Amino acid sequence: MFRKVLIANRGEIALRILRACKTLGIKTVLVFSEADRYSLGVKYADEAFCIGPPQASKSYLNIPNIIAAAEISGADAIHPGYGFLAENADFAEVCESCGIKFIGPSSKVISLMGDKIAARKVMYEAGVPVIPGTFEPVEDEKKAISVAKDFGFPLIIKAAGGGGGRGMRIVKDEDGLKGALMIAKSEAEAAFNNGAVYIEKYIEGARHIEVQILGDGKGNVVHFYERDCSIQRRHQKLIEESPAIGIPKEVKEKLLESAVKGARAINYEGAGTLEFLLDKDNNFYFMEMNTRIQVEHPVTEMVTGHDLVKYQILIASGEEMPVKQEDIVQRGHAIECRINAEDPFNNFLPSIGTLKIFSLPGGPGIRLDTAIYNNIEILPYYDSLIAKLISWGLTREEAISRMRNALEEFLIEGVKTTIPLYLRIMEDKEYIKGNISINFLEERGFLNGERG
Ligand code: ADP
User: Fold this and answer.
1) Which whole number is the average pLDDT over 319-335?
2) Which of the four CATH numbers 2.40.50.150, 3.40.50.1100, 2.60.40.420, 3.40.50.20 does domain 4-103 have?
């Protein structure tokens, strides 16, 4: 087992990893930027090293400084959390070559799954249904037109190296194809340093359903069931839940089986998520794989009772699969709301300032993953996520009503947050019925101020 783990992240996920290390009796080292000097993580970690100025590119993405901190502190392993360097194959490789264990899959697997075209190919070959589309980069208009002939409109152009909901363009007809292709390619080049794009059928009214898996890199893979992450804005998740309701039993079984099959095909090590789209006729298609712990992992922990971050660490330390598939069961229902410091009624404009906490939510089935405290400065440098509020109930209805109470109890001022939007969603009759899809927020008028 590791003696000391370095956490290369900040905010709530840094605390989440710190807690997992503590439960395993492992010492912790946290790296932080000048902006996070007064963070809770710095207070709770056994050791903390400042690795640079506030800008992420100079601190949380500064590989030499992070490695130096690991070497000086004598850390055996690095946990990257999500975002920043979590899916950076170069970073994983540097760790490997320095003899520091990267808590996650090998750099080879990260780079394979990080190329979405390659990932589609691997999954297709493993017998996992993938979204109809190309298995090669689409270079020019001629190719794009022939793809459109094969699959029909609407289509979606996606960046092979994309992530975070960026680098995607929906095309409704041939007129828009050429321009969209050019823009998508140049955006992909600028944002991801990789101009390769591919084309998929755009699946209208789909649900985003993903499967949490865990592999030990020794051929064993288990799943922790599915999450529904359909409530999105600009292809980015806002609310997630588990289980996904209304999926026929045989479809769900096939979906879970496919995810395990896909993870086995790459001899996966660590926690990972295979993301799928489920169409209106309950056909599912692989979309991409995330080779890290995800923001929404707590809903899975709430319904299964398993500690996924702890398992990540155990597996990275060389243990065999710490849990049997038959010991993983879904019980009840969990929902997560991502509380962002943004104004949901003004185009989700990021909000910064000094946060005043009057009351934090609690009670049965409520979990709050956050690193906020009274008078903390919400800064403009990083992601706007300030808290994850998770509710659990024996039924979906109970999870919704507990979430509603918790959102009402969550009294903070100083910055605008997405809490008022979530309160309205929790009262929306279609949401309550479970009529959700990736177009939900738009269709129900939550994005254009109609409900403001
Ligand atoms: P990222 O890695 O940037 O998050 P994903 O491939 O995971 O990108 O897609 C994010 C979201 O974009 C999906 O959850 C879905 O809402 C939308 N999307 C992606 N591909 C398609 C598609 N072929 N049809 C419909 N929506 C899609």
Assistant:
1) 98
2) 3.40.50.20
